[in-house]
Amino acid sequence: MQHSTPPHEITAREAPPRPTFAQAFRVWLRIGLLSFGGPAGQIALMHKELVEERRWISEARFLHALNYCMLLPGPEAQQLAIYIGWLLHGARGGVVAGVLFVLPGFCVILALATLYAVFQDTHWLGSLFFGLKAAVLAIVIEAVWRVGKRALRNGVMVSLAAGAFGALFVFDAPFPLVVLAAGLIGYVGARNWPKVFEPASHGGGEAASVLGDETAHPPASWGRSLKVAAVWGALWLLPFVALGAVFGWRSAYVDIASFFSKMAVVTFGGAYAVLAYVAQQAVETHHWLEPGEMLDGLAMAETTPGPLILVLTYVGFLAGFRNPLGLTPLGGGVLGAVVTTWVTFVPCFLWIFLGAPFVERIRGNKALSGALAAITAAVVGVILNLAIWFALHVLFREMTTIAAGPASIQWPVLRSLDVWAALLALVAVASLLKFRLGVPGTLAICAVLGFAIRTWT
Does 136 have pLDDT greater than 80? Predict the structure, then answer.
């Protein structure tokens, strides 16, 4: 019988034993249950669990994988989980990591959407998850500091991070453009100044990890790529064939599958990049939602575990609930939610299983590695942007924007500091950094305190 060594009993120089599939399953389930706070919080949580505490993957490999995921459409945190799961245990590891990252949030959103459709009331949800937001803010702050300390090794990398942050936070630049510009700078820079754009790697004093810089990875081949594309492409198309055969090719369910499949390939930069378009189409074109209902769904997705893009599950539920086509309304809602979730997340597995072997292969190419190192620096700015956006929404009850300057830049105007939220954030920082109570303990303390505050004030 295999026993794992607790993380604190492994010396800094000794690589921990490779986790068994069962051990990885439990950790991926834990991450799925605790993945609050959008992509910044989720990336922070995985960094803490997989890099710092368990040392299943080195910092350099973690950042290398994150760079690739940032270039893809869809939820980058879930794709990062798939990537690392694949590195640890092959395809089955990637499938389990990706599914468990989404499954808890899907179940919660499905339950909340059902209650919403029946009772049209979610005000209690804010009380329940008020404290969790403050805890997640502390996790995000810690991640920005730790990842930034590792990735920003010189002034050029600091400048790239600052430029990415300014482009996103100040000028609201398109996310793919920011990442691709950083990659181009890194590619050119690595060919001319290789030392400046050298990727982060472990030095002699670094703790060893299961997936260190030298670890072999599954090989890349065009034959394998064709097989992966055929299998996952067929799984992606499966709902169209099944729903068309049962309900007809012009049915609402086929429309749901088609619409959200399109969203799956254009969601660069996270859910907020497409939510306005989804809301407009769902309300005005398809008439799946009433005006204002999208905001209620967004509130659900922001305060439950899993990717924020799970708000689409809520949209799909209401679409099916109001167009049951011979099913009961609840049956139609569940089918709409399942179809939406399927076509939204199956492509994530396709992107990772298709591209990850090639991305692993280029770790030895100095120019391409330099491009990814520059993207790493830009990603620090991206995470900082997400962290500040999240902090503003946690700490202030009102936030509007005004256009100012010659380019009509949108600047946030903050009103009504939420003192209780600020105090809870300080409690979370102390719990996490000073008392070392860990993520679950910090989340539990803040959840109880937050619910008590919202109930009694």
Answer: no
